[in-house]
Write a structure and sequence with these properties.
This protein is mainly α and about 150 residues long. It has a domain of about 35 residues. The protein is about 50% helix and about 0% strand. The protein has five helices and no strands. It is flat and about 110 Å long.
Length: about 150
């Protein structure tokens, strides 16, 4: 019987597997777009949050549409927001009064405000004046007469 002896030399294939594994890990780490995947995940998360917000708004609008579907709610909305009245009715608006409780003409109509003197009026910018062109010849006067054609 022959006994198997271990050779003192290491097998040449013993180091190939760890080297291949290390190369595969290095390639995966350097070429794998981890930052791109993470940024896409954050974009997907924010988009899902926006979609959830839109669904919540949709539910609120559906509830509001359901409540406004009745005739009484539509009539109330027309009266409050659009100052509409039913046929045969008239609309009366009560204007707010001043601090004393009465309504004065000056608090209601801006036309009753006192006039401003021209010297205290705000300046509208620099005013440029132009001197009129004096036409000498007949043709030049005729052209100036028909200036509206330009």
């Amino acid at each position: 019987m022959a006994t198997a002896r271990k050779s003192s030399h290491a097998s040449p294939h013993r180091w190939v597997f760890p080297l291949a594994l290390a190369t595969a890990v290095a390639m995966l780490v350097t070429w794998f777009p981890l930052s791109g995947i993470l940024s896409q995940q954050s974009v997907i998360s924010s988009t899902l949050a926006q979609i959830a917000n839109v669904h919540q708004q949709e539910k609120a609008l559906a509830t509001q549409a359901h409540t406004l579907n009745s005739t009484a709610a539509a009539t109330q909305l027309a009266r409050e927001q659009y100052q509409l009245v039913s046929p045969g009715q008239s609309l009366i608006q009560v204007l707010p009064g001043n601090a004393t409780g009465g309504v004065t003409a000056q608090s209601v109509d801006p036309g009753f405000q006192p006039l401003i003197s021209p010297s205290s009026a705000p300046a509208l910018g620099s005013v440029t004046t132009t001197t009129p062109h004096v036409a000498n010849g007949f043709f030049e006067r005729l052209v100036r007469t028909f200036e509206f054609w330009r």
